[in-house]
Amino acid sequence: MYNKSKINGYYVFGKNNTELVREQLDKLEYHRYDVLPVGGVKFNWITRHSDINWTRFDGNFQILNHIYNENQLSNKSLLFQNLRNCFKEKNVLKTFLPQTYLLDNPIDRINFRKVFQNNSLWICKPVGLSCGKEIFLFRSEEQLENLLKEYHQNKHYSTMYSNRLVQKYISNPLLINQQKFDIRTYFLCICLSNEILYFACQTGYLRLSMYEFNLDNLNKFIHLTNQTIQNKDEKFAMKKDSTGMTMEEFNDYFNEFIQPNMMNIDKDWVIRQLPKEITNILYQVAYSVRNQLISQEGCFGYYGVDILIDENLKCWLLEINSGPTLDMTNKALEKVIPICLNEAIQIVIEIFDSYRTNGSVFPLRESKFFKQLSLNTSSIIPNEIPTFISTNSRLIDLTPGVNLPTRRYRRSISQKYRSKSIVHRMQTKS
């Protein structure tokens, strides 16, 4: 059924600078298909999760850049609930997550009103959108209610509280040249038949506002640093290169302007300690979703992670996005995005090739940019793969012309893989 070009073939569909994905796969000498052949191809990159016909994905042969229920990570409400359910001791969440309340949860709404004080600064976010859409800051309940009513009328939500959360705004962010910034890094999840491997990226880039930080001015261009917001400003074309910074550039700035004013903080904190702080946050995230994500062999997720650092060098998790931007709107992004994407794709292909050929993925190749997170615990994964239902005939058929079984079961884990997996976890723990 499969000739060599299809076994080593790839199919890319959608926007978000997907030409960059094609370039990376061309370097690996994969054969490009602009139209899927009978039976499909090995590597599939589909920009939007909603375009996939999940009943037509062959996990025994193919690779796909989405996890079926990845909204457990990318939906702000579900991620928060997973974290809250996992770490019932609230002091754990306070170490990396801003104070959060779900507005469509009556108990959360009551608790929010108990703690809210007029003139305190909070931020309201839609739980399922990205790119800064419908985000606003507020200092009073009246402001909150008025803006929610406006969105409710314009967007026809079922109630004005639907799919909304509020968070205490981090009002003391670390600044660069008096400008607010956050860090975009990456979280890689790879689904094997019986478990999910998690990887935390050890680098990233900074996203800076074009304007000086000012708590008295709630202009979104000051407080929302993502490129989708910033590039809507009329001055962006002139200032775009000032809205990005590599971690190496950040480290140089930190050593010159920040570290000398901080006691007990060594130089090169950005390079030596910051990746450890972010990796620890992503470990908590991975642990909280280990029994929530559906592990179907062949699937992987490449997620954007947004981290804010406050003036005490404390790291805060802002959100996790599926389909992080591959658009390179400034020089910093041109340096960072391709190397992270290329490394992630290579890790994914190497792991699936090794797993399907040898029944094992360990020992993993050492990666400069990604660190595996060993959870030292087993996930609860049922033997039968859930039956996926797709009723939209316009969805992408990844295996055209081939009949796939409606009921599919996970391959039996080999003793060879099991023993190597246990040894790997023991070595990582020690």
What does this structure look like?
With 430 residues, this protein is α+β, with helices and mostly antiparallel strands. It has 15 helices and 18 strands. The strands form four sheets. Strands 9, 10, 11, 12, 13, 14, 15 and 16 form an eight-stranded antiparallel sheet that branches. A hairpin with a 5-residue loop joins strand 14 and strand 15. It starts with a helix and ends with a helix. The relative contact order is 0.17.
Radius of gyration of CA atoms, rounded to a whole number: 22 Å
Low-confidence stretches: none
How much of the polypeptide forms β-strand, as a percent range?
15-25%
Oligomer kind: single chain
Q: Termini separation (Å)?
A: 46 Å
Outline type: globular
Which range best describes the helical content: under 10%, 10-25%, 25-40%, 40-55%, 55-70% or over 70%? 25-40%
Class of secondary structure makeup: alpha+beta
List the total number of helices.
15
Largest sheet descriptor? 8 strands, antiparallel
Tell how many strands the DSSP assignment holds: 18
Average of pLDDT: 89
What brief labels describe this structure?
20% strand; 34% helix; 18 strands; 430 residues; single chain; 4-stranded parallel beta sheet
Give a quick precis of the structure.
This protein is of the alpha+beta class and 430 residues long.
Write the layout of secondary structure elements.
Layout lengths: L3 H4 L1 E5 L4 H10 L3 E3 L9 E4 L16 E2 L6 H4 L1 H11 L3 H4 L6 E3 L3 H10 L6 E5 L9 E3 L2 H15 L8 E5 L6 E2 L2 E13 L4 E6 L3 E8 L7 H4 L3 H4 L5 H4 L4 E3 H12 L10 H4 L1 H16 L10 E10 L5 E8 L8 H28 L11 E4 L10 E2 L22 E2 L5 H15 L1
Parallel strand pairs: 1-2, 1-3, 3-4
Antiparallel strand pairs: 5-8, 6-7, 6-8, 9-10, 10-11, 10-12, 10-14, 11-16, 12-13, 14-15, 17-18
Helix pairs in contact: 2-14, 4-13
